[in-house]
Amino acid sequence: MPSLSDVRVLHQAHPVAFDVLMAVALMPIVVLVPDSGRADASPLSGAAAVVAILTCAGLAFRRRHPTAVLVGTVGGAAVVILLDGGPSTISFVPFVALYSFAAASGWIATVLGFAGSVLGVGTAVALATTPWPPDPQAFQHVSSFAVAAAVGMTVRARRAYVEAVEERAERAERTREQEAARRVAEERLRIARELHDVIAHRVAIVNVQASVARHLVLADPPAALTAIEHVRDAGRAILDELGDVLNVLRQQDEEVDPHSPAPGLDQIQPLIASFQAAGMSIRQSVSGSPRAIAGGADLVAYRVLQEALTNAHKHGTGPATMSICYESTGVELEVTNPVGDREADDHSAGAGFGLIGMRERVAAVGGQMVAGHGPSGRFEVSVRLPDREGVHT
Q1: pLDDT at position 175, please?
Q2: Is the bond into 133 cis (omega within 30 degrees of 0)?
C-alpha cells in the first residue's frame, strides 16, 4: 500500500495525472454514496448522475483554470442538488475546487470565492428543501468551505515563503560568487603590484651593472668582476623577495616562513645601499622621529620610495634627492631627480604602470600623491601618508 510520502512524490512529479485520478475516484463516490443528512439513502440517477460525473471531471483542470473550475463545480453541484431534491455528497467537489482557487489567488479573491460557493450551494439546498424559512441543512457547508479556503490560503502563503527563501538563497549564492571573484581580482592586482615593486628596481640594477661589465670586461677586468658581483647579488635579492611575495599563493597546509615581515621604512637604508652599489648617487634627508607607520602605510612608504628611486635610476640624469619627514599625524616622502627632454618623455612613458601602482597603493591607505615634472627640469614624486595610530593619539 503506498504511503503518504509516495502519494506526495506522485503529486509533485505528475500533478495533472494526479488531478485526473482524483476526479475519476470522486465520480463513484458522489454518484453512489448519498448524503448522511438525508432520510432516503438512494444513489443519484438519471440527469443528476450525469451532471455529477461532469462536475467531478472538471477537477482535472483545477490547477490550470482554478476560477473557471470553481464556478463550474459550484454551478454543477447546485444543479445536482436541485435535481436530486436535497443535500448531496456532490458538495465535496466545490470544496476541493475552492481549496485550489484559494491556493492560487489572493485573500480578497478567496473571500469572494468562499462567499459565492456558500451562496450557490446553500441556495440550492434551500430551494430543494424549504425555501423559507431555510432548512438548517442549507448552512451546513459554511464551515467546510471556510476550512477549504483557510487551508488553500495557508498553502499559498507557505509556497510564497519557500519561494522567497529559495530566491534569497540563490541571491546570496550569487553575491558570494561575485564577492569571491572581486576578492580574487583584488588579490591578483595586489600580487601584480608586489611583483612589479620587487622586480623592477632589481632588474634595473642588473641591467645597469651588466652594461658596465660589458664595457669593462676587457679594459678593466677587476671592475667588470665587481659589476658582475652586483648582478649576482641583485639576482639573489630578486629571488628572495619574489619568494616572499609568492608565499601568499601557498596552500593552507604548506609552511610559510613566519620570520619574513613585510618591508617598511626601517629597511630603507639597505634599499638605498643597493642603488648606491649600482652607481646611483642619492642625497637623502630624514627629519622628525623615525618610526613604523601604522595602518599598512609603512609597506606603502617603502614601495613608493622603491619605485620612485627605480624610476630615477632608469631615467634620471644626475643625483637623486630623497627626503622623509616624520610628523605626528603621518609621514611625507619626496623623491626628485633631474631629467633631460628625452629622458623626461621616457620617464613618463616607462614609469606609467609604476606611477599608477603607487597612486593606487597610496589611495588604499588614505594618502595623497603628486607626481610630475617640476621646475628646473626635475621630476618630482611627493607623497603624504597618514599614521592612523598617530591620528588617534
Answers
A1: 84
A2: yes
Q: What is the pLDDT of residue 88?
A: 75
- Asked if the structure places residue 163 within a domain, the reply is no
279 Rama class: left (phi>0) / alpha (psi -120 to 50) / beta? left
Bridging pattern class, strands 320-327 and 378-386: unpaired
Nearest in space to 372 (alpha carbons), one of 326, 335, 342, 325: 335
All 3 cell numbers of residue 101? 482557487
Q: Where is the domain boundary, 124, 140, 156?
A: 140
- Rg of the chain over Cα atoms, rounded to whole angstroms, equals 44
Residue 238 domain flag: no
Q: Evaluate if residue 132 carries a pLDDT over 70.
A: no
CATH of the domain at 324: 3.30.565.10
Statement: the pTM of the whole predicted model exceeds 0.90: no
Here the cell at position 366 is: 588614505
Instruction: Calculate the average pLDDT of the chain.
Output: 78
How does pLDDT run across 140-169, given as a tens digit for each residue? 677 788 888 898 899 889 888 988 898 888
Give the separation between CA 79 and CA 85, rounded to whole angstroms.
10
Over the stretch 76-120, which tens digit does the pLDDT of each residue have?
Answer: 888 888 887 777 778 888 888 888 899 888 889 888 988 888 888
What count of other Cβ atoms lies within 10 Å of the Cβ of residue 322? Answer: 22
Query: DSSP letter string over 314-353?
Result: HH-SS-EEEEEEEETTEEEEEEEEE--HHHHHHHHHHTHH
Q: Quote the Cα angle for 148-108-147, to 5°.
A: 15
pLDDT in tens, 26-75: 888 888 877 665 556 677 778 888 888 898 888 888 888 889 989 998 88
Full strand arrangement of the beta sheet holding 378-386: 282-287, 320-327, 330-338, 378-386, 368-373
Q: How many domains does the chain have?
A: 2
Q: Which three cell numbers stand for residue 177?
A: 560568487
Domain residues for the domain of 73 are: 4-140
Last residue of a domain, one of 140, 159, 184: 140
